[in-house]
Structures are given as C-alpha cells and as structure tokens.
Amino acid sequence: MKGLILNFSPRKKGNSEYVANEIYESLRTKFYKLELLNINDLNISKCGSCQEYCYKYGICRIRDDMQVLYKHFEEDDIIFFITPVYFYHIPGYAKIMIDRCQPYWVKKYLLKNLNLKNRKSFLICIAATKGEKLFHGIDLTMKYFFDIFNLSFVKKQNLYFKNVELKLEIVKFKNFIKYYIDKLNIRR
Ligand SMILES: Cc1cc2nc3c(=O)[nH]c(=O)nc-3n(C[C@H](O)[C@H](O)[C@H](O)COP(=O)(O)O)c2cc1C
Fold this sequence. Notes:
Number of helices: 7
Radius of gyration: 16 Å
Number of strands: 5
Helix content: 25-40%
Bound molecules: flavin mononucleotide
Strand order of the largest sheet: 2-1-3-4-5
Number of domains: 1
CATH class: Alpha Beta
C-alpha cells in the first residue's frame, strides 16, 4: 500500500506539522511506502488557464513539482490532507496547487478518459476560532477536488479542530488524535 500525508501549513513546528508527524509515525509501518510532504517546500506555479492546451489534451504544460503530486494523486491508496484555516479557507498556496489539477477535471468530465480506482482520503482542518461555518468553504473545495481523483470525501471520517491557535496548541488533543488514527483501522 502506498500513501501520502500532505501538509498545507507554511508554519514550521505548527499544529498541522504535529498532526502530520503523528500520522506518519503511527502508520508508516503499515505502508509499503508512506510519504510526508509539505506543499510549501514544493515549487508550484499558478494555473495560467491556458485552455487551448489544458482543455484539448487534459495535460498541464507547466513543468514543476506538480509532477510529483500528480503521481501521488493518481496512484496512492490513501492520502491525508492537513490544513490550517486561513480566512475561512485553505491557505492560498494550497489553492494554487488545487487549481493546477484542472487538467484532471478536463480528462474526467470533458475528455472522459480518466479511469482512476476509488481510493481513500482524509481531511484534517485546524482553526483558531470557533465560528459555525469555519470549515464550509474548505469542505466544498476539497470535496470537488477529491472527486476528480476518485478520492473519498466522507465528512464523518475527517477531523475538524476549533480553538487551536498557537504553535503546538494542538497537543492538547494528543490523545484524541491517537484515538482517531487507531480508529482508522489501516491494515497492511
Ligand atoms: C493568514 C492567516 C489567516 C487565518 N485565518 C483564520 C480564520 O479565518 N479562522 C480561524 O479560526 N483561524 C484562522 N487563522 C489561525 C490558524 O488557522 C490557526 O492558528 C492554526 O492553528 C494554524 O495551524 P498551523 O500551526 O498548522 O499553521 C489564520 C491564521 C493565519 C496565519
């Protein structure tokens, strides 16, 4: 089994990084290959909406680190996405990454030549405040992003943290995070 843990937070030693490391340490022996990446360490250019190429071929003509992520999104069995909430959404750089997946939307819905198997994915969101609609924007974007790659979006299997602001404040939920990872019941 191959897997990816993708951290959207630019903050070093922050809450998303803590959760990403916990998942990695708990699950790595269950995978043939489990990779932990932070998109902020990758070089990702913005979508140029070059429809004459993207919409014709379902391929992005920009060559950068998206090639690494495309491979994971196409092939991995399980993918974890961990994000802080920024202005009621994912951080801008993460949205740039998602926009670059438009060629796969084209392949799936216009060219109808994308046949990826159904795989599991999990979304973990971390916010400082406790507004009722904190995660609405993220859920919508991630649901439609997952759909392109046939990655599952099951709200009750995701994790949503409120009231977590300072670096490593998430550690107050340490036991709950361990329980969540155990309950995922991921086997070799
Ligand atoms: C640019 C920016 C925007 C933010 N916007 C929100 C927000 O809209 N709602 C919220 O509850 N927290 C917001 N926060 C707080 C972060 O979501 C919170 O501190 C989180 O724990 C950071 O996680 P991290 O340590 O993984 O980066 C924002 C933080 C930053 C830096």
